Amino acid sequence: MSTDRLYSELNGSADSAGLFDVGATSHPGKIRQVNEDSYFVAPTSGVFAVADGMGGHEGGALASSTVVQFLESIGTPVSAADLLARLEDRILRANSALQEIAQERGKIIGSTVAILLTYEDHFACVWSGDSRIYRVRSATITQLSRDHTEVRDLLERGLLTAEEARTWPRKNVITRAIGVRDEPELELEHGLLEPGDTFIICSDGLTGHVDDEEILAYAGRGGSQEVSDGLVNLTLERGAADNVTVVVVRFDPRRPRDSDTRVVLGGRRAEDQAAAPGAGTLQ
């Protein structure tokens, strides 16, 4: 995994958990009965993630939840290098676990993952597959991740036009995912945080129905939870042919440090998991 080049570039120490306003919403959609998406929100660790499982119904749900379960153990890092090292270890372990499950079941199961890491005023985006990470800054939206899909590869090689890509029958075929190869293939981007930066992490259930300019418009509507709820509701209004998950993270250095920073696992706060198995999703 290509994370080593960041170790010397991101450094420092401080708990910046209270600097973020975070919202998260997940829904199985209008067609599917099982939600194969999972998400993880842990401001104290500086980790925010969306995973979209593949492998059919229970297999896909198991794949994405397995990735999230390994992310849960990252804990609080002491430096940016430590955070990246912990992430690398958990992804490697998740990859191995999914391969073992696949061997037992006799079928490939895997999961995309899109992860935002934050440490002090630095951020890094790490991803595999077609779940996306956007950043809204100064009223401009930028897709920081690049889809690992067959259609993107064909576009970059000049074998498809943009118009052809929109109706390409294999446009949803992904070329990377956790669990499908011996070594997970991740891509990474990084930079400095600026006040007001808003990150939208989402599964392809959102981007299949909502375009970038619409995401930009919603990003300015209220707090992060309002934004994530609004984007999922818009997707549902348009048919929601797939599971849809949205995590919104807004960097606000003026935010009181005693703000809510509890960990959220797969759509539920840790302390709510047993009591409210349906919490955290729109009905």
Could you explain the architecture of this structure?
By secondary structure, the chain is of the alpha+beta class. The protein has one domain (15-264): Phosphatase 2c, domain 1, CATH 3.60.40. It has eight helices and twelve strands. The strands form two sheets. A seven-stranded antiparallel beta sheet has the order 8-5-4-3-2-11-12. Strands 1-10-9-6-7 form a five-stranded antiparallel beta sheet. Strand 11 (264-265) and strand 12 form a beta hairpin. Helix 2 runs antiparallel to helix 3 (80-105). The chain is globular, with a radius of gyration of 18 Å. It starts with a helix and ends in a 14-residue tail after the last strand.
Mean pLDDT: 84
Q: Helix and strand succession?
A: HEEEHHEEEEHHEEHHHEEE
Strands of the biggest beta sheet: in what spatial order? 8-5-4-3-2-11-12
Proportion of residues in β-strands: 25-35%
Number of strands: 12
Give me the secondary-structure category.
alpha+beta
Shape: globular
Low-confidence stretches: 1-14, 268-283
Named CATH topology: Phosphatase 2c, domain 1
Indicate the radius of gyration in whole angstroms.
Answer: 18 Å
- Classified in CATH, the superfamily is PPM-type phosphatase domain
Q: What about the largest sheet?
A: 7 strands, antiparallel
CATH class: Alpha Beta
Total helical elements? 8
- Relative helix content: 25-40%
CATH architecture: 4-Layer Sandwich
Number of domains: 1
